Every structure is written in C-alpha cells, then in structure tokens.
UniProtKB/TrEMBL annotation:
Protein name: tRNA threonylcarbamoyladenosine biosynthesis protein TsaE
NCBIfam families named among the record's database cross-references: T6A_YjeE (TIGR00150)
GO molecular function: ATP binding; metal ion binding
One Pfam family from the record: TsaE
Keywords: ATP-binding, Cytoplasm, Magnesium, Metal-binding, Nucleotide-binding, tRNA processing
PANTHER family given in the database record: TRNA THREONYLCARBAMOYLADENOSINE BIOSYNTHESIS PROTEIN TSAE
BP terms from Gene Ontology: tRNA threonylcarbamoyladenosine modification
Record has Oxidoreductase as a keyword: no
This protein's GO CC annotations: cytoplasm
C-alpha cells in the first residue's frame, strides 16, 4: 500500500489549495507535524487549513508564545516550537494536555517534541526546490495518516 502522498507546489496559491484540501480530508482529532526549513510554507499551510476549518479571524504565527488556539467548528491548536530550547519546556506549557484534546493540532518545528508524540500522527515535509517551488510530502504513522494519504491519493 502506498503510504505516501507527494505533490509539487509551484506557487503560494497551490500550497494554500493543499492546506484547504488537507482541512477537508482530515478527521478530528488530528495531529499534524509540519517539517521544513525557514520560509518553506508551514505557516501558509496551517493558515489555509485553519480558514478552511471555518475560523474567520486572523491567523498569526505563534512563534513568540509557542501556542495559539482557535475555536471554529472544531477546536484548533497551532504550535510553533522554533524558539523552544529544551523539550522540558513542553511540560511547562502543558504540551501533553494539548495532545489529549479533541482538536486539530498543527505543530511547526516539531523536532524537540517527537519523544512526546503518540504513535498516530501526520507528518508533512516541505522542501524548497526553488524560490516559488515546494515539494510537499505527507507521511506518517498510524491510522490517521494512512486514511489521509489514501484520501489525498484518491483525489487526483
Ligand atoms: N510554492 C510555495 N509554497 C509555499 N510558500 C511559498 C511558495 N512559493 C513562495 N512561497 C513563499 O514562502 C514563504 C513561506 O512562508 P511561511 O511563513 O509559510 O514559512 P514557514 O515554513 O512557516 O517558515 P518559519 O519556519 O519561519 O515559520 C511565503 O513568503 C510564501 O509566499
Ligand atoms: Mg512558520
């Protein structure tokens, strides 16, 4: 079985379209890890997905306070762990409680959190191919990602 979905995005608009599709195809709860260098499109995907999930306000990157919460038809949690120094800090922000919520969770820069991540998750890798081109790959472990990958592959 194909456990991977991959597309080339040629513009921010195509990446936004991917984020929207992602929002349409996930089940709740969902844990989505976004991996990729600075400025590859992790926040762009999250913003598009948060809007598609029905949140109408501004979505800003939570770099300084690590976590942002949004209430739409579903509860949405957006974390950006770029400024995290030690994984112990995750316990201070109640990381494990967030994971237990019936929510859609997006985590940018998830490296330091990996030891606390449960076995079922969606892993999105973004690679910059050129100024405007990105390769977006969805992998993961567990039911959550295999269902999503199946649905994404059926769409095209
Ligand atoms: N095909 C593309 N897909 C996504 N972003 C693109 C693409 N082409 C150009 N860009 C630009 O790349 C930038 C992506 O910014 P974004 O804030 O989403 O990155 P990020 O991965 O969240 O970075 P950071 O690690 O700093 O949080 C935007 O300025 C966007 O316009
Ligand atoms: Mg970002």
């Amino acid at each position: 079985m194909d456990k991977k979905y991959s597309i080339i995005s040629n513009s921010p608009a195509e990446t936004i379209a991917f984020g929207k599709k992602l929002a349409e195809l996930i089940n709740v709860p969902a844990l989505i890890l976004l991996n990729g260098d600075l400025g590859t499109g992790k926040t762009l995907i999250t913003k598009a997905a948060v809007s598609a999930l029905g949140y109408q306000g501004d979505v800003t990157s939570p770099t300084f306070n690590l976590v942002q919460e949004y209430q739409a038809q579903v509860e949405i949690i957006h974390m950006d762990l770029y400024r995290l120094d030690r994984s112990e800090e995750l316990l201070e922000i109640g990381f494990e409680d967030y994971l237990n919520r019936e929510a859609v969770i997006f985590i940018e820069w998830p490296e330091l959190a990996l030891s606390l991540i449960p076995a079922d998750f969606i892993f999105i890798n973004i690679e910059k191919l050129s100024d405007n081109q990105r390769e977006i790959t969805v992998r993961g472990e567990g039911k959550m990602s295999s269902l999503l990958i199946e649905r994404l592959n059926q769409e095209c």
